[in-house]
Amino acid sequence: MFRHYLTTAFRFLKRNRLYTLINALGLSISLAISFIILLFVINEFSYNHCHKKRKQVFRVVNYYKEFKNTMLGTPYVLARTLEEVYPQVEKAINVRFLRGFKLMLGNEYFDIRSPLASQSEVFDIFTIPFIGAPINQDPLGQLNSIVISRMLSDQFFPGEDPVGREIEALINNTEQLLVVTGVYEDIPVNSTFRADCFVNGRWTLEHLNRTFGVSDMDVSWTRDFWNTWILLSEDADPEEMDGQFETFGKKYISEDPQVLYSLQNLSDVYLQSADIANTGLTGDIKNIRLFSTVAVLILLIATIELLFEEAYAAEKNLGTILSIAAGFTLLIAAFGLFGLTLFVARSRTHEIGIKKVFGSSGKAIVYSFLGGNFLMVLFAGLLSVPVTLYFLRRWLDNFPYRVDIGWWVFAIAFLLAAGVVLLTVSLHAVRASRTNPVDALRYE
Length: 444
Prior knowledge:
Elements: H1 2-15, H2 17-45, E1 57-64, E2 69-71, H3 77-85, E3 89-97, E4 102-105, E5 108-111, E6 115-118, H4 122-125, E7 145-149, H5 150-156, E8 166-171, E9 174-184, E10 197-200, H6 202-212, E11 227-232, H7 238-252, E12 259-265, E13 276-277, H8 285-300, H9 318-347, H10 349-357, H11 362-396, H12 407-433, H13 437-442
Parallel strand pairs: 2-13, 6-10, 7-9
Antiparallel strand pairs: 1-2, 1-11, 1-12, 3-6, 3-11, 4-5, 4-8, 7-10, 8-9
Helix pairs in contact: 1-11, 2-8, 2-9, 2-11, 2-12, 8-9, 9-12, 11-12
């Protein structure tokens, strides 16, 4: 029986070449763009998944009551105090970008893009695997320690093991001799926490003490120049800690503190930081929702025939531009599906009437409709895959890091498209199958 339906479908598609071509081309474009949208959404949600303990990792954010603004700046002393006061805090570090940091190669100093000053516990909180063994269990314990990435290792010590080697650095405009105490794998590009190297956190104290003419940066609660990260135990309740921060502030800052600490999980940093100032690399959850909506509309709007005459003007970012362009393209590609299916159903009314007279069941008529359209979707899906791969690879070649294109992305988009298209067609088919055969035979 299934073979019969396929044979009938092939004959119908052959007789209606223009209909087949229009729908196949429209669906191919729709599927290709849906693949791109799906890849974008997957990439956005992949941020910080490289850190195995991400559900336990939190950063402390700081709400300034006077300015009604949330920022990341926290005092140096906060990390140590949290670890001492809260038993559920397993590890705590403070982190600060080291401005003006340079390393010498040959006889010339080179700027390092992302040097961070912190403590050795940073390797326990974040998933930053070492290449080989570090020089000791506390690789950032000494002031002259430096842990470098594989990239810097290849650049400054090509073909050599840099652990234990000395390297000249420029820190706070002063020449220093550092010792490489470890090398780690490059942090993935889809991590919001990035560094090309780590040095001892005390380098930031000296510079800030001198800049502000003070000597208490390490114990002051009012100088918020660091980011604080903590690792909570698996059974810890971060909301409970949030509720205790007001009392914490009154005890350690003042009786009426003008700041209020709270915790933000590492998994939320990339997409949930729009209201946090100076947060660094972030995405936009609004774009994700917009893209997801467009991906759904790709399949649903195939049942509506509309005409858009105006496009939006320039948008604020690439995500919005792509989503609107994708939406319009998919709408245009889907415009004819409903109308063409209805036209075909009406053009086959006479044929349906004859089939019903000769005893064909409504189920068989529905299957005959679905067979042709399923073949059309299959053909469109096969056509869209090489088109998508070609343009995606050319686009992704512009980036040093890229998302892998898995086969399952195409499979999901194809199944969704097939489901919506077949649902649309089945509605027409059911309606046509219920037509009175007498009226159908009179139809011209």
